[in-house]
Amino acid sequence: MTDDTLTDDAPTSDGAPAGAASIARRLEAILLVVEEPQSLVSLAAAVGAPVAAVRQAVEGLVADYDGETGGPRRGFELREVGGGWRLYVREEHDDVVSEFVNTQAPSRLSQAALETLAVIAYKQPVTRGQVASIRAVNVDSVVRTLLSRGLITEVFTDADTGAIHYGTTDALLVNLGINSLDELPRISPLLDDGADGFEGEVVR
Amino acid sequence: MTDDTLTDDAPTSDGAPAGAASIARRLEAILLVVEEPQSLVSLAAAVGAPVAAVRQAVEGLVADYDGETGGPRRGFELREVGGGWRLYVREEHDDVVSEFVNTQAPSRLSQAALETLAVIAYKQPVTRGQVASIRAVNVDSVVRTLLSRGLITEVFTDADTGAIHYGTTDALLVNLGINSLDELPRISPLLDDGADGFEGEVVR
Amino acid sequence: MAPSPEDADTITPAGDAAPPVETADGFRVSLPVFDGPFDLLLNLISQHELDITEVALSRVTDEFIAYLRALGPEGDLDEASEFLVVAATLLDMKVAGLLPQGELVDAESVALLEARDLLFARLLQYRAFKEVSSWFARCLQREDRRHARSVRLDEKYRSAAPELRWTLSADDFAALAVVAMTPTEPPTVGLDHLHAPLVSIREQAAIVVTLLRGAGSLSFRELIAGVAQPGVVVARFLSILELYRHAALSFEQLEPLGELTLRWTAERWSEENLATLGADYDR
Fold it and tell me: pLDDT higher for C13 or C113?
């Protein structure tokens, strides 16, 4: 692997340490086989390099694939979603790829499912009863759908009441194309007022 | 896609026709998602370009990934295997990838994986969606694990819905110490009642 | 950080998004004080621009039912369930709105106003989630079209995985299948943490009747003198309410939270009345 450093430091030659290029090459190998977004920590363990160096190499690859380091803008890109990094087809080629693989898109979520998902995302961990009291309808079957889609999961069960508390999954973040819950649109001004009152009501 | 030709003709600039670079980019997109090696004809159909141009673009990409066009020698390579082209991890990184796979795959199946396997064994042929609905959790990653462990296999794909139906393999029988699926202990009452109920839910 | 800059455009704060105008095919309300789509009605009410007491809920309901009929059996279930949410909230608000609200003289009216605010808050909260759900729909739809690399592992790497250690017998496996396929019980509120012994309202009523007929008039404090268990106090109070329903007693309270005085007023009372008393509390 030592010969790597001789030939492939072109894209990261600007001030990167000697091993950076070869970290990037090993990252490329790992990224080719992973099926889920990989955190920097996991990538660092895989390529046997410090997290800081891996972070730098990842950033270098993103720029590299984006065509910002002298090479072409690749047909794929390196994206950070759901708390990790993963290779994606670049958006402008999605149509070409869709036509080729001809995969059926998963069926759309109903409006009720979307609203329930939103409530769970913002109020997690939250019980079905609490969600139902906000939406004022029974949400059991919708919660089941969201569970089987892997968008939400059971976080814990209250020892006293037996009530299951639900939260969202990393798969939801991936499905939304965001990296963390912090990227959800802010609706807190409204919630801060309303929510407090409701907690009391839920108990009733 | 037109702006591609301005920036990314570096690797194929030597006499290639104007659209070659953008063919290469679309090829990269297709190659990122394919499971099986693709013939030039199939690739040409996918990117909507003449076979000759695709052949040239593929050769350009091979050289590009091999670091012969000014860029780095990538951690992956484009190789022709069995009459088709596919991305592979470059051989010198095999150790890193093997080690990564090794640490990712524990020697025992998780409880979730075992339960999913049991559902598939008794309900086969069965789709992921049906299993997910029975188990009330997303089973995508578990199904991948079971597939990679060779315990289940794709039996057929529904022509209408495109849904893949899974069944168990002989490897499972060997592990269980039985000769055929008929020797699985009977648990029919549950199957008749409970399962049907869920089927209904899946449809809804 | 979202990797693509386009994301910035699509993340609009829910507050000012509010594009709920589906006037073309959505449900419209026609009232003397208002004519327009249902969502707008909600909007106005939540902004206090329309007094909820001016809205005849029964008329809105009638029109909505007519609207649903017109839609036919394959009508939009989402819209119907949404209407139920909204109608329930409107009803709550209307109850609060119709109650007299003079000046803030006593704790009771403050509480009423708070309840009213709470209902507004509730409506706003529901709207917030409803609006933000469109952001979820947009993102999910956009990502549905994206393709991540997800390719089966090469055989040579697959064999690098450690050999599977299998410990289950066929019977274990069958047992596991039963567990996995048993539908999970709908969650129920556990009562195991409640240990209070059951107290009979009928028995407590018998005690109250005996005490009250003897004394003619007693304060509630006197009625529960010497009772240590909260459950018995509650049951005795409930029995008083039941006896009041039977016109067996009257009560008097001069000021809020003041002394509660009970007076035996039954002209005809037989022990048979006791037998059916508190039947509502039986299961």
Answer: C113
Nearest to B33 among A48, A89, A169 (CB): A89
CA pair distance B126, B121, nearest whole angstrom: 9
Top mean pLDDT of A49-53, C67-71, C75-79 is at: A49-53
pLDDT exceeds 90 at position A61: yes
What is the reported pTM?
A: 0.62
What is the distance in angstroms between the Cα of B98 and the nearest Cα belonging to chain C?
5
Measured on CA atoms in the order A157, A158, A161, A166, is the torsion positive or negative?
negative
**CA separation, residue B53 to residues B12, B18, B49, B96 (Å):** 11, 11, 7, 35
CA distances from B173 to B122, B154, B167, C163 (A): 13, 16, 12, 16
Mapping DSSP to helix (H, G, I), strand (E, B) and coil, where does residue B204 land?
coil
Residue-level pLDDT at C111: 60
CB pair distance less than 8 Å for A178 and C125: no
Handedness of CA B97, B99, B104, B106 (dihedral sign): positive
Task: Search chain B and give the residue with CA nearest C155.
Answer: B148
Flag whether residue B183 sits within 8 Å of chain C, measured between CB atoms: yes
Q: From chain A, pick out residues whose CB is under 8 angstroms from the CB of B135.
A: 148
Question: Are the beta carbons of A162 and C142 separated by less than 8 Å?
Answer: no
Residues B10-58 pLDDT 10s: 443 333 444 666 999 999 999 999 988 999 999 999 999 999 999 999 9
For chain A positions 104-163, those within 8 Å of chain C (CB to CB) are: 105-106, 108-112, 114-115, 117-119, 121-122, 128, 134-137, 140, 160-163
Which position has the token pair 């315990």? B151
Find out whether C278 and C242 touch, Cβ atoms under 8 Å.
yes
* Most confident residue range from A53-57, C95-99, C156-160, C167-171: A53-57
